[in-house]
């Protein structure tokens, strides 16, 4: 079976989107399937039309013309049309058995039109509702014309694709509520490769010393600093935690739109030296930073995006053998059983975060039990091998139906 994946962007860029894609491609090849890969013009402007990255050959799409970029609606339509043209060029050469388009809906629309012209089945994968992410980023508001148009376009793709996949039960429920038959929607959950996450390793003493974390109780976050992650809540909680235990430190690894505001908040609260910003670190160095942390904190704020979408980072922390404290938004509740595989607190409530962390610190005798349960959850229910195997029940009937 040969699958042509149609993507927004890909490696060598680093994001949750590209890491999920890479895991899917690796596991599909392990299943004996052939994969081909095309990114839209949103991958990055300019550059070559074909590129090999880590053994994967990616076909690229030229960007819109300068005058098109100046008109938002025209620019979006130009993305669709350019992707359609590339699909028309590549399908006769690559001869895929199935098209698999991944969010956003612009990719789905281009793939839908190409699939009909070439007589191929189309699977559309929704990884998040991009209109909700745009609300958090401040580029639109819920209920605005842009919001409603984006939602309507994706619903159109859901209805006309041959099958729909998504990453969690929250997104599936919303898709089904739009009138899409439940049998048409398959959850392919986010997962990890446990072999890449050594369980319970000790911190690197040199790295510990360089960051001033030797002998400290380290709360940590590794990822992108978006507003919906709620990192300001963790900083707000820190003074109360320091009054309980002056050894507590907050380690923030990564960067993003909220970094300047978070640094300003640290100054305002007089927490210099208590909050450690590392900036972005090379991907191959991330495991060393996982090992520095005693308790990972994921204080996502309550909103549509976080209620519906499951994150990947808590799974990585559990696989690595680190405790997880997270807000009780829907996306976290799909991953964490409170008091068993991790701990949940009331979303948006700094006092609840403080109470939960203090309770966890006071129950160190239970840490090995919780850590083992978290690792067991990942290895039994959230491996990429088992997750990607679910595509078989999606692809096979469609390929058979289309001959």
Automatic annotation (TrEMBL):
Pfam families: Glyco_trans_1_4 (PF13692), Glyco_trans_4_4 (PF13579). Its EC number is 2.4.1.11. It comes from the Bacteria. This is Glycogen synthase. Residues 16-190 form the Glycosyltransferase subfamily 4-like N-terminal domain. GO terms for molecular function: alpha-1,4-glucan glucosyltransferase (UDP-glucose donor) activity. The lineage of its organism: Bacteria, Pseudomonadati, Pseudomonadota, Gammaproteobacteria, Methylococcales. Keywords: Glycosyltransferase, Transferase. It is an enzyme of class 2 (transferase).
């Amino acid at each position: 079976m040969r699958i042509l994946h149609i993507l927004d962007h890909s490696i060598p860029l680093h994001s949750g989107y590209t890491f999920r894609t890479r895991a899917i491609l690796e596991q599909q090849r392990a299943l004996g399937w052939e994969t081909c890969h095309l990114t839209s013009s949103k991958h990055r402007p300019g550059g070559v039309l074909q590129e090999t990255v880590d053994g994967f050959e990616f076909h690229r799409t030229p960007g819109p013309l300068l005058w098109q970029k100046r008109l938002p609606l025209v620019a979006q339509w130009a993305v669709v049309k350019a992707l359609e043209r590339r699909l028309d060029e590549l399908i006769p050469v690559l001869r895929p058995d199935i098209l698999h388009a991944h969010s956003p809906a612009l990719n789905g629309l281009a793939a839908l039109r190409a699939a009909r012209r070439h007589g191929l089945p189309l699977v559309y994968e929704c990884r998040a509702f991009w209109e909700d992410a745009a609300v958090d980023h401040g580029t639109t508001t819920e209920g605005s014309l842009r919001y409603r148009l984006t939602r309507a376009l994706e619903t159109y793709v859901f209805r006309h694709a041959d099958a729909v996949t998504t990453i969690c039960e929250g997104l599936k429920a919303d898709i089904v509520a739009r009138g899409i038959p439940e049998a048409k929607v398959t959850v392919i959950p986010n997962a990890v490769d446990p072999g890449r996450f050594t369980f319970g390793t000790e911190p690197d003493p040199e790295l510990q010393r360089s960051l001033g974390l030797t002998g400290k109780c380290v709360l940590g976050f590794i990822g992108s600093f978006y507003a919906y992650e709620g990192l300001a809540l963790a900083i707000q909680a820190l003074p109360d935690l320091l009054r309980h235990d002056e050894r507590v430190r907050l380690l923030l690894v990564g960067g993003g739109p909220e970094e300047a505001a978070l640094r300003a908040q640290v100054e305002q609260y007089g927490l210099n030296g208590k909050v450690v910003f590392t900036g972005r670190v090379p991907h191959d160095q991330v495991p060393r930073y996982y090992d520095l942390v005693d308790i990972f904190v994921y204080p996502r704020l309550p909103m549509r995006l976080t209620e519906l979408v499951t994150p990947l980072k808590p799974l990585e922390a559990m696989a690595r053998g680190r405790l997880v404290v997270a807000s009780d938004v829907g996306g976290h509740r799909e991953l964490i059983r409170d008091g068993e595989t991790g701990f949940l607190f009331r979303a948006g409530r700094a006092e609840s975060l403080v109470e939960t962390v203090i309770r966890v610190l006071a129950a160190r005798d239970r840490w090995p039990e919780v850590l083992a349960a978290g690792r067991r959850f990942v290895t039994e229910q959230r491996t990429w091998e088992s997750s990607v195997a679910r595509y078989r029940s999606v692809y096979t009937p469609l390929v058979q139906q289309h001959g």
